[in-house]
Amino acid sequence: MRHGCEPIEGRSRSDRRQRKAEPLIAQGARAVASIAEACREGAVLTMLANDNAVESVVLRKGGIIDSLPKGGIHISSSTISVALSEALATAHAKAGQRFVAAPVFGRPDVAAAGQLFVVAAGSADALAAATPLFDAIGQKTFVVSETPKAANLVKLSGNFLIAVVIESLGEAMALVGKGGVGRHQYLDILTSTLFSAPIYKTYGALIADRKFLPAGFAASLGQKDIRLALAAAEELRVPLPLASLLRDRFLTLMAHGGDELDWSAIGGLAAKDAGEEG
Amino acid sequence: MRHGCEPIEGRSRSDRRQRKAEPLIAQGARAVASIAEACREGAVLTMLANDNAVESVVLRKGGIIDSLPKGGIHISSSTISVALSEALATAHAKAGQRFVAAPVFGRPDVAAAGQLFVVAAGSADALAAATPLFDAIGQKTFVVSETPKAANLVKLSGNFLIAVVIESLGEAMALVGKGGVGRHQYLDILTSTLFSAPIYKTYGALIADRKFLPAGFAASLGQKDIRLALAAAEELRVPLPLASLLRDRFLTLMAHGGDELDWSAIGGLAAKDAGEEG
Amino acid sequence: MRHGCEPIEGRSRSDRRQRKAEPLIAQGARAVASIAEACREGAVLTMLANDNAVESVVLRKGGIIDSLPKGGIHISSSTISVALSEALATAHAKAGQRFVAAPVFGRPDVAAAGQLFVVAAGSADALAAATPLFDAIGQKTFVVSETPKAANLVKLSGNFLIAVVIESLGEAMALVGKGGVGRHQYLDILTSTLFSAPIYKTYGALIADRKFLPAGFAASLGQKDIRLALAAAEELRVPLPLASLLRDRFLTLMAHGGDELDWSAIGGLAAKDAGEEG
Amino acid sequence: MRHGCEPIEGRSRSDRRQRKAEPLIAQGARAVASIAEACREGAVLTMLANDNAVESVVLRKGGIIDSLPKGGIHISSSTISVALSEALATAHAKAGQRFVAAPVFGRPDVAAAGQLFVVAAGSADALAAATPLFDAIGQKTFVVSETPKAANLVKLSGNFLIAVVIESLGEAMALVGKGGVGRHQYLDILTSTLFSAPIYKTYGALIADRKFLPAGFAASLGQKDIRLALAAAEELRVPLPLASLLRDRFLTLMAHGGDELDWSAIGGLAAKDAGEEG
Question: Exposure pattern of C145-177 as b/e (b: 16+ CB <10 Å)?
Answer without folding.
Answer: bebbbbbbbbbbbbbbbbbbbbbbbbbbbbbbb
